[in-house]
Model the fold of this input.
Amino acid sequence: MNDFEPIQKLLRLKRYEQPPEGYFEDFLHEFQQRRLSQPVRVSFWKLLFGNLNELLTSFRLPTLAYAGIMLFAVGLTGFMVSGIDEAEQAVADLGSSEAFQQRVSLNLMPQQRISQTRPLLSAPNYSVAPAAARSNLPPSYVLETHPVSYEQPFSF
Amino acid sequence: MDNPPNPSDDELVSRARNGEPSAFDALVIRYSPRLYGLVYNMTSNHEDTNDLLQEIFAKAYSAIQTFQRKSSFYTWIHSIAYNRTVNFLRKRGKQYSLSLDDIDSNIQNDPDFMEATAALDPRRETNLSELQKKLNEAMQKLSVNHRAVVTMFDIQGMPHAEIAKILGISEGTVRSRLFYAHRQLQNYLEEFRESGGKP
Done:
């Protein structure tokens, strides 16, 4: 006997609490009246969904269909794995080429990129001041149109 | 084609879905006593139970077309009843009044009742109504979730697995809720029990 047996016995007595006699007949009558006064309107889509769902639930796929689906899944997985291998090989080949090195350099961190930039002197067009200014002034070097220095480059 | 004398729930559901209201009426007749017990023992109020029961069957009737048969009709209709009752009780809050049903006279022959009231034979009638009131008050002190499992398990005699399906919880949770509910009820009814049935 468990510790709660007396409580459970008391609770079981609640089964004897019953509605008045004839209640359930009256209840059904009331329900029917209510149904007549408030006809159910089910939307077309709800109805369609319900019927479709039941159809699919009742539809039993043969075992062979499951086997076919499984075979297809295995094939697809194999195809994808072989595709990944090929892609990895292509990346390995590319890694040795110059184009790849260039691409990698573009992907470096900003600090790394700064350390690898070319000197301004070697820049073709914008590193030296325009010709008109150069005639009266010592050679100057600009960075992005802002003057950097008006001293001789080799005056140290 | 003649309908079978005692059609299954599935058969009645199919017929109701095909536009046969009398098939749904048969389901109402079949399930209203059980659902009445569930709702009444959770609300302890006859009028509220009646209103809720009407709503529950109306809801089920309007949703019968979309009933997907993933569970039995029994589980489905009990879930609707449980959810509707819980919503109602949450709105009602702690403001409630007891409106209790009469007690079937057959209780006099129940051994559990005789044991509970053995010491008070001369005053059995008085004690019976007091016992009923005390039990219902104790039930209302439980949380809604605890009250539901006590109602289904102790009063309606449902197995743990069925309760778990209806409430959408595990059997372990059902057992755990039952344990705590029993312990709480034992505390609430301790005074009553110690005085041998005298409130």
Observations:
- The first helix of chain B runs from residue 9 to 17.
- The CA atoms of residues 146 and 179 of chain B lie 9 Å apart.
- Chain B is about 70% helix and 0% strand.
